Amino acid sequence: MTRTVDQRPDDAVRLALDLPSAGPEPLPWNTALTAVLGYARGRRPLRYRSPIEREGRWVQVPAFGYDRFDARPVPAGPLADDDVLVAEGLHGRLDPAGWTAVRDRLDRVPPIADALVERAAGRPFWELPDDELSVLGEPGTVGAHLRTLAELPGPQPRYVLAALHHRRPELVPLLNRATWLQAVPHLREGDSGVAAVPHRELRANAPAFAALEDATAELLGRRLTRLRLHDLLLWLAGTLRLTTAVTLGEQTEEWLRWCAGRAGARR
Fold this sequence. Notes:
The longest helix is centred in the last third of the chain and has 15 residues, at 206-220. It is globular and about 60 Å long. Strands 1-2 form a two-stranded antiparallel sheet. The protein has helices spanning 29-41, 66-70, 81-91, 96-108, 110-120, 142-149, 155-167, 177-183, 196-204, 206-220, 226-238, 242-249, 253-266, and strands spanning 43-48, 57-62. It has a domain at 65-240. The protein has 13 helices and 2 strands, in the order H-E-E-H-H-H-H-H-H-H-H-H-H-H-H. Helix 1 packs across helix 12 (242-249) and helix 5 (110-120) packs antiparallel against helix 6. A hairpin with an 8-residue loop joins strand 1 (43-48) and strand 2 (57-62). The two termini are 32 Å apart. By secondary structure, it is mainly alpha-helical.
């Protein structure tokens, strides 16, 4: 159950997020916000030397994949090469054989993706009824379609899901090996797949994720859906990067502005 800290909208202390897949303790709301800001705005030093330079120099590069994935424009038209590039921005470069395999898969997924969208009927993932992520409601459910797209986090499925999520960030969950391993122990009898785990946690923490969604949209100027926010927090926790993201987030202009705004509201 979500632990209420303070539900006043003008206070920086809000709802904790109870995410069993990310760890045994509830995640404080402010910690989640700073982690997201660190993911989006954090930078790390990289020693760079071009072929025409005698000596290298230190440059600041994005620490995480926000600029390469979340901030990329959504490609127009059918799934194509640009969608593979977007997926590479999140999961890394593919070798030629991998590129060809993912590109071929994207040519074959539109019927499944279209059926998924039709079944959702305009509802975002977190508003779908539980039966849509249960084998008891099959066949033809959202969960069944997601399982067809990619159940295990192999090389091809995670790139395909990243491309589809970028197109439908309110409906298609992301998945990679780290988040899959975090979610699998929390499967319950009757679940249609690992997508049922974030679905339960999003519904159980609806007020906290709604507030987090609004706050990040205000600060970043770009709305990350709560489905993406859940994936991001789960990945940071599962790969032991949460502390780094929080530290980077606390140094951002957006966090300082948020704290200043909350302090002013309390006067």
